[in-house]
Amino acid sequence: MRYSLKRGNNMVYKQMNKSSAEAVLDGDIKGWRRILPFLGPAFIAAVAYIDPGNFATNITAGSQYGYLLLWVIAFSNLMAVLIQSLSAKLGIATGKNLPEIARENFSRKTSIFLWIQAELVIIATDLAEFIGAALGLYLLFNIPMLPAALITAVGSFAILELQRRGFRAFEAGISGMVLIVVLAFAFQTFLAQPNWVDVTIGMFTPRFDGIDSILLATGILGATVMPHAIYLHSSLTQSRIIGRNDAEKKRIFRFEFIDIIIAMIVAGAINMSMLIIAAAVFHTQGVVVEDLDIAYNGLKAALGPMAAVSFGLGLLIAGLASSSVGTLAGDVVMQGFIRKKIPLYLRRAITMLPPLVIIASGVNATYALVLSQVILSFGIAFALVPLVMFTSKRTIMGSLVNHRITTILGWIVVVIVVVLNLYLLWQTVFV
Q1: Residues 115, 386: Cα–Cα separation, whole Å
Q2: Hey, what's the torsion of the CAs at 249, 381, 225, 52, to 10 degrees?
Q3: The model scores a pTM over 0.85
Q4: Which residue, 382, 417, 374, 421, is CA-closest to 113?
């Protein structure tokens, strides 16, 4: 078979997607429609960049420093484009995902260690996403956190059910949820009426205002790279559309790169809008906001109840979508590193336990989000270093091996992200 899709997809969709992708690669489809069969994987990966863990950081940065740190988000997005493109390219070139390639090139003990740390990181990530969704329900409907968490659990199972209808249905569902988040924050931005001159200056003028602003910038940059998004993206492209030769693989990657650009622009716009809204609403009043419930009530007081509702809805949808994506990533790392699988719904049930316990204990939700980011810091190097290392080897990548400049940029990003995360970890734990 010339093209194949992920196992478990709907058979009708397989045939339709196969023929449309084949028509594009054979030159039978022209114009903008050529990108359509290749859209989707990057939007699933991009959900990781708008998870609730980013909400608190962006809102704090905007309320405390106005538009000053917008350029940090823009720079973070450029890094994300490079990293996700390397992950997608690895899957296209090899027909395998990052954990599978790591298992083949590292010892069994190393693979087991990488699997354990990846699972811990995904659990920490899921903690932020799950608590964020539950907090969204609490803010919107005044449902206590524990019942809200149980409702979130039901919702996340419902989203995973989309996968049973095929990856295209799951991609469409996740993309639709991202669209809701986009509309929610676009509405808030419209109501906030930011100073667009200051927004432009903030986006393109790198600067700081004291040590605290550097620490916040470190938090924004350090939390940008999500290990589970790296693992998952290589899995989403590894056998979704398979090229018969090097020329077709290069064309597939070019189309997937467009998917990445679009998805990262959307994710970056959402993160920027969070900071812009906080700057326009809170910074202008001299109010520093560090808790999401305070942000919700502040928006309600300043812009009206609809602004607060759209904020809560964005938080809820982002949490649900990113939580489901995290569950899929957990399946990928277990299968890839140790060749084991458990039912997806069992995995979802297991990963729900830590956030349910934390919520039941009464821990402050925003504080739990911060702690999850600390745990996340441990796992970034273990995903980034193998990614750049493997995509730089011609024996693994063939004709899709990194150009020299790409490899150099990749290692620069690795150093920046790892150093910043270590600094953030030190500041959070010891200072």
Answers
A1: 13
A2: 130
A3: yes
A4: 382
Are 194 and 338 in contact, with CB atoms under 8 Å apart?
A: no
Going by the DSSP 8-state scheme, the letter that residue 340 receives in this structure is: -
Give the H or E element holding residue 242.
none
Helix pair 52-65, 292-303: axis angle to 10 deg: 60
In angstroms, rounded to a whole number, what is the distance separating the alpha carbons of residues 312 and 132? 10
In which band, very low, low, confident or very high, does the pLDDT at 428 lie, cut at 50, 70 and 90?
low
Q: Which of 369, 343, 358, 362 is nearest to 157 (CA)?
A: 343
Q: Is 360 left (phi over 0), alpha (psi -120 to 50) or beta?
A: alpha
- Lookup result for tokens 């400049």: 405
Distance in angstroms (rounded) separating the CA atoms of residues 167 and 201:
41
* Terminal-to-terminal C-alpha distance of the chain: 58
* pLDDT tens figures, 174-192: 889 999 999 999 999 999 9
List pLDDT tens digits, range 85-126.
999 999 999 999 999 999 999 999 999 999 999 988 888 888
Residue scoring higher pLDDT (75 or 365): 75
